[in-house]
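Thread: "does anyone have the structure for this chain?"

Original post by V.I.:
We have the sequence but no experimental structure in hand. Need at least a predicted one for the grant figures.
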Amino acid sequence: MNRDAIARATEQAYVGISDIADRAKDLTERVKDTYRDAERGVRKLRIATEEGIQDTRRQIKSRPIVAVALVAAGAFFLGGLIGRFSRRGRR
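Reply from O.Q.:
Generated one for you, tokens below.
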């Protein structure tokens, strides 16, 4: 009887360990897939960013006066907003 109990316990332990090993393999595969997807996303984002930078450079080179005017208008607008909000805090 004692040998049967030990044999059953051993068998149950093997089943439990193999179940844990299978779950670990599944989890590993999921993590690998997620990592690959993240790598792909980062690669696409990097390419899109580089293309955007190239487009911006082309626009600046083709119309430098417009680029300077846009930057000046943006700076003027942001300066006005910052000035308005900083004055409100003093009152």
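V.I.: this helps a lot. The radius of gyration is 32 Å.
O.Q.: and The mean pLDDT is 90.
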